[in-house]
C-alpha cells in the first residue's frame, strides 16, 4: 500500500474560511431576532439561523475537501453526504436554541450550547469524510483528531460566549464580528487539523460500490447551491424583518397607526431630542355604547375614522399612536403649553363632528389629558402616567374637555389609588358604619322615617367622605358587597329598635345601579328581611332618576316585584336627573324626594315654582313627598305653605350613629 501526500490550494482554503465566517455572522444576525420574538415567529428566526450556520459549515467542509489536492479521483456517497448536511443543521438548531432559550444570557448555558455546536460540527465532518468514495482508505491519528475536536470546542465556546454582548443588536457589531471569526476559525481549524491527522493509503484498485458523484461537477454545483441558499435566507430574513415583521410588530393592524412598541421606539429615538414636548392621551367618550348597540364592526370603522382625523389634525407636526381599544396617544415634540392647548381645542372640535358609517350618523366626543416635557417628566413612562392622570380629570369634569397635568392631580390620583386599595379590605376589617338621619313630620311633630347613610372609618385618615369613596366603590363594583352588608345591618338594627320599642318607622337605604345588574336584587332584599325578621314595609329603597331610566323595563320589573313583597320605594334627588315626566307614572314609587339644591335656593322665584310643581305632581300621582336639606324655619314655612310636611335636614337632625340617635329619640319624644 502506498502512502499518499496531500497538497492545498491556498485560495480555496481562504474561500472556505470566508464561507464559514459569513455563515456564522449571518446566523448570529438572525439569532439576535430570536431574543426579541416569541411563539412561531421566534421558532422561524431560530430555524433560519440554524439553516444558515449549518449549511455554511457543511459548505465549508466540502470546499475544504476540494482545496485538498488528493492524487486520486474522489466521489461522494449521496446518502451520507445528505446526512452530514442534516446533522449539521439539526445540531446547530439545538445549540442556538439552547443559547437563546433564557431571558437572561447565562454563561453555563452558553458553554453547553458551545459544546453542542462543536459536537455537531465534528459529527458533520466525520460523516462527510465517510461519504468519500475513492481508491484509498483513511486512517485517523487519535491524538491529532482529539486535538482537532478540542480546538473546535475551545473556539466555538469563546465565540458563543460573546453572544451576551450583542444578543439584542440586529445591526453591525464588532463583538458579533469577533464571534463569527472565532466560530469560522473553529470550523476551518478543526477541518484542516483533522485532515492533517489523517493518513490516506491505497491498494491500487477501486472496489465496486454504489453510484458515485463526480467531485468537480456535481459537488461544486451542490456547494454553490448551498452558498446561494445561505445568502437567500439571510437576505430574505433581513427583508422580512425590515418590511413585514417590523410593520407587524410596530403597527396596529386595524388603524395602521404605530402601536405601543412603535411608541417606545419613537420616544427612545426621536421625541426627547427637542427642548420641550407634549404628550396627549386621547380617550373616546361613550365608545362602549356604540360597540354594544351597533356591533364591533361599526366600532372598528369608527376607530379607523378617528385615527384618520387625528393623523390629519396633527399633520406631520407630531406622531399619533393607538394604545388599544379607544385609547390613542399623540406625541408633539418641540411644543409649548400654549400650542398644546390650541392643538387640544382643534382636535376636540374635529372629533365631535358627525361620522357617517354604514348609513349610521354617529356622534362621539373625546377627552384629552396632556403632559409636558420636561416639566412633568423626562422619560416616556412618567409623561404617559401624567397624561393619563390628566385624562381622568378631564373625564370627571364632564367629558369632551382637555386637562393639563399638575401636581394637585397627581396627589389626588395617588390618594384615590390608596383609597381603592384600602377599600377592598375595609369590609373585612369592619371599618364601615351606618349613621341615620331622621325624616320629620312638621305638622305631627313625630319621626316618620330614617335614612341610613354609609360612613367609612379609615384607620389612618379618619372618616372618609362618601363623596370621595362611593364613586370608587361604584367603579370597582365593591358597592355590591357593601350594600349587601348594609341591608343586613340596617334590617337587624331596625328590628332591634322595634323589640325595644324605641321607634317603629321605615328605614331607607340608597341603592346603586350595580344592584340592579343580574336581576338578583329581590332575593338579596328578601334574604336580609327574613334573617332579621323584619316586615317588608319597614324597609325603603331609594333610587335616583338615572337608575330608574337606565334599562327602564328591567328596573321597573325588579321594583314592581319588591313592591309586591311590601318594600317601599322612593325616588331620590327628584328634579336633578334625566327622567321623563311621561314615564314617571310607570315607575313603582311611593315617595318623591325634592333635592336639597331647590330647598337651599327656595327664595328664588324659579326654584319655588319647581318645588310647587314637584309637590303637585306627587299629589296627583298619589305619592308622598319629602324635602331634603331643610335647615331654616323659613324653609319649613314655605314647604308647609306649598303642601309638603315631611322634611329631612340639619334643622331636625344630622346623620347620627346608633348611640347618638338613641339620645336624640329620647330628647325629641320628651
Biggest sheet strand order reads: 16-17-19-20-21-22-23-24
**Gyration radius over CA:** 41 Å
The CATH homology group name of the largest domain: EAL domain
Q: Termini distance?
A: 134 Å
The geometry reads as elongated
Helix content: 55-70%
- Overall mean pLDDT stands at 82
What fraction strand?
Answer: 15-25%
Report on the architecture of this protein.
- Pfam families: EAL (PF00563), GGDEF (PF00990), MHYT (PF03707).
- This is Bifunctional diguanylate cyclase/phosphodiesterase.
- InterPro entries: Biofilm_reg_signaling, EAL_dom, EAL_sf, GGDEF_dom, MHYT_dom, Nucleotide_cyclase, Rev_trsase/Diguanyl_cyclase.
- 57% of the residues lie in helices and 17% in strands.
- Strands 16-17-19-20-21-22-23-24 form an eight-stranded mixed beta barrel, surrounded by four helices. A five-stranded mixed sheet has the order 10-11-9-14-15, with helices on both faces. It has a three-stranded antiparallel sheet with strand order 1-7-6.
- The protein has three domains: 241 residues, no CATH class; 146 residues, Alpha-Beta Plaits, CATH 3.30.70; 245 residues, EAL domain (TIM Barrel, Alpha-Beta Barrel), CATH 3.20.20.450.
- It has 24 helices and 24 strands.
- It has 670 residues and is an alpha/beta fold.
- About 2% of the residues have low confidence.
- A hairpin with a 3-residue loop joins strand 17 and strand 18.
Amino acid at each position: 500500500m502506498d502512502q499518499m501526500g496531500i497538497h492545498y490550494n491556498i485560495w480555496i482554503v481562504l474561500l472556505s474560511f470566508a464561507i464559514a465566517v459569513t455563515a456564522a455572522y449571518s446566523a448570529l444576525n438572525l439569532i439576535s431576532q430570536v431574543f426579541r420574538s416569541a411563539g412561531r415567529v421566534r421558532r422561524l428566526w431560530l430555524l433560519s439561523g440554524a439553516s444558515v450556520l449549518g449549511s455554511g459549515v457543511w459548505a465549508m467542509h466540502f470546499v475544504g475537501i476540494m482545496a485538498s489536492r488528493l492524487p486520486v479521483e474522489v466521489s461522494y456517497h449521496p446518502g451520507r453526504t445528505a446526512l452530514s448536511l442534516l446533522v449539521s443543521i439539526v445540531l446547530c438548531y439545538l445549540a442556538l436554541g439552547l443559547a437563546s432559550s433564557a431571558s437572561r444570557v447565562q454563561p453555563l448555558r452558553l458553554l453547553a450550547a458551545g459544546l453542542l455546536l462543536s459536537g455537531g460540527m465534528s459529527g458533520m465532518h466525520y460523516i462527510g469524510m465517510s461519504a468519500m468514495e475513492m481508491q484509498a482508505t483513511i486512517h485517523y491519528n487519535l491524538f491529532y483528531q482529539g486535538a482537532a475536536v478540542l480546538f473546535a470546542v475551545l473556539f466555538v465556546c469563546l465565540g458563543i460566549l460573546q453572544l451576551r454582548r450583542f444578543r439584542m443588536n440586529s445591526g453591525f457589531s464588532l463583538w458579533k464580528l469577533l464571534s463569527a471569526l472565532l466560530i469560522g476559525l473553529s470550523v476551518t481549524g478543526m477541518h484542516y487539523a483533522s485532515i492533517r491527522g489523517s493518513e490516506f493509503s491505497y491498494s491500487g484498485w477501486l472496489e465496486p460500490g454504489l453510484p458515485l458523484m463526480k467531485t468537480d461537477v456535481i459537488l461544486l454545483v451542490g456547494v454553490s447551491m448551498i452558498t446561494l441558499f445561505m445568502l437567500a435566507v439571510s437576505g430574505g430574513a433581513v427583508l422580512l424583518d425590515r418590511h413585514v415583521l417590523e410593520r407587524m410588530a410596530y403597527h396596529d393592524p386595524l388603524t395602521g397607526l404605530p402601536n405601543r412598541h412603535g411608541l417606545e421606539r419613537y420616544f427612545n429615538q426621536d421625541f426627547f431630542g427637542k427642548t420641550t414636548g407634549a404628550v396627549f392621551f386621547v380617550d373616546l367618550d361613550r365608545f362602549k355604547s356604540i360597540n354594544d348597540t351597533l356591533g364591533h364592526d361599526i366600532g372598528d370603522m369608527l376607530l379607523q375614522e378617528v385615527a384618520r382625523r387625528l393623523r390629519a389634525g396633527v399633520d406631520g407636526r407630531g406622531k399619533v399612536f393607538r394604545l388599544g381599544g379607544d385609547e390613542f396617544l399623540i406625541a408633539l415634540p418641540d411644543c409649548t403649553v400654549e400650542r398644546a392647548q390650541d392643538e387640544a381645542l382643534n382636535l376636540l372640535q374635529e372629533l365631535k363632528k358627525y361620522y357617517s358609517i354604514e348609513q349610521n350618523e354617529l356622534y362621539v366626543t373625546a377627552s384629552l389629558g396632556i403632559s409636558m416635557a420636561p416639566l412633568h417628566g423626562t422619560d416616556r413612562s412618567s409623561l404617559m402616567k401624567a397624561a393619563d392622570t390628566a385624562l381622568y380629570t378631564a373625564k370627571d369634569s364632564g367629558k369632551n374637555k382637555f386637562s393639563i397635568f399638575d401636581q394637585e392631580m397627581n396627589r389626588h390620583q395617588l390618594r384615590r389609588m390608596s383609597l381603592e386599595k384600602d377599600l377592598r379590605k375595609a369590609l373585612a376589617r369592619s371599618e364601615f358604619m351606618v349613621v341615620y338621619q331622621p325624616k320629620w313630620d312638621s305638622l305631627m311633630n313625630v319621626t316618620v322615617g330614617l335614612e341610613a347613610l354609609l360612613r367609612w372609618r379609615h384607620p389612618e385618615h379618619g372618616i372618609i367622605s362618601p363623596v370621595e369613596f362611593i364613586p370608587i366603590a361604584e367603579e370597582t363594583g365593591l358597592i355590591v358587597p357593601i350594600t349587601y352588608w348594609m341591608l343586613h345591618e340596617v334590617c337587624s338594627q331596625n328590628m332591634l329598635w322595634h323589640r325595644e320599642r324605641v321607634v317603629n318607622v321605615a328605614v331607607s337605604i340608597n341603592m346603586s345601579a350595580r344592584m340592579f345588574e343580574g336581576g338578583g336584587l329581590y332575593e338579596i332584599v328578601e334574604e336580609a328581611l327574613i334573617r332579621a325578621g323584619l316586615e317588608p314595609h319597614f324597609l325603603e329603597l331609594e333610587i335616583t332618576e338615572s337608575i330608574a331610566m337606565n334599562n327602564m323595563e328591567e328596573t321597573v320589573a325588579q321594583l314592581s316585584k319588591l313592591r309586591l313583597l311590601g318594600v317601599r320605594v322612593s325616588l331620590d334627588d327628584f328634579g336633578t336627573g334625566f327622567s321623563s315626566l311621561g314615564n314617571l307614572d310607570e315607575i313603582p314609587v311611593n315617595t318623591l324626594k325634592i333635592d336639597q339644591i331647590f330647598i337651599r335656593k327656595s327664595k328664588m322665584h324659579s326654584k319655588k315654582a319647581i318645588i310647587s310643581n314637584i309637590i303637585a305632581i306627587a299629589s296627583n300621582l298619589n305619592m308622598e313627598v319629602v324635602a331634603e336639606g331643610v335647615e331654616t324655619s323659613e324653609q319649613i314655612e314655605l314647604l308647609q305653605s306649598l303642601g309638603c310636611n315631611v322634611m329631612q335636614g340639619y334643622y331636625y337632625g344630622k346623620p347620627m350613629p346608633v348611640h347618638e340617635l338613641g339620645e336624640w329619640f329620647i330628647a325629641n319624644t320628651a
